[in-house]
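Hello,

Our lab assistant flagged a job as stuck in the queue for most of the afternoon. It eventually completed. Since we weren't sure the result was trustworthy after the delay, we are filing this so someone can double-check. Below is the sequence as submitted and the structure that was eventually returned. Let us know if re-running is recommended.
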Amino acid sequence: MVQSPALATPPLAAQGNGHLAAARHAFSVPERIAMSAAERTALAGAAEPPLRHEGLKLTRWTLGDGPRVVLVHGWNSRGAHLLGFARPLVDAGFSVTLFDLPGHGDSGGHAASVVHAGRALRSLAAAIGEVHAVIGHSMGSAAALLAFAHGLQVRRSVHLAGPSSLTPMVKGIATVHGLSPADTAAFAGWVEGFIGTRMACVDLERLQHGLRHPGLIVHDPADRTVPFAASQALHGAWAGSRLEPVAGLGHRRVLADADVIARSVAFVAAGRPQ
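-- returned structure --
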């Protein structure tokens, strides 16, 4: 059964031994990041009515006019963190929609996962109509892969430092929290109960059929948060993709790099209908 629409704090997230409880919390309860004054200024006048999604209200903004580009943020982040892409896209003739995923930013909910993020992206797309492109960072990239596999169609997508399969991410959390083999198995079972499906259903092998459009993949091989191997695997499974390694940007600085932004905007613009 899928987790309840209101996304209350996951059951058992704070129960069990300390390491197991910490792993559950790390997987399902994001940190809520406040918007900066500069971000509020940049988004002034761009707010739209909240998107009603699975009993929650998701905050969203749209800038500009033209074919729609949706920006999807990562874990412990918010839509405004991708504002660096917004103005160049607007200047290139696109409209840009940013939104806060469940449990993040100014949106409702206290818990989330890549599966919940993927569903939120699909709800947003259904509400706004045709989407020209998606640019996703970290979990936002993985949420886009999940949305594509469940029917979202776009002309282009850009994937910044994103995981491509859930199973290795869950194993990584278990390792970081020092879980024993028995607790790792218990943690995996809890994850599947929380996301409402088998972890294998959120792995690349089960998602790659949705990759029918050109994609740009950007990742720093020295990224310590999401292994570069995740993007290599995505590129290997996606005939229409281009993998562009970048150096010295880590996991988050990729969002503010002028060259990455310019390349992403040029890639999105190259898919504009003639």
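-- support follow-up --
The delay was a queue issue, not a problem with the job. The result is valid. The longest strand covers residues 56-63. DSSP finds ten helices and eight strands in the chain.
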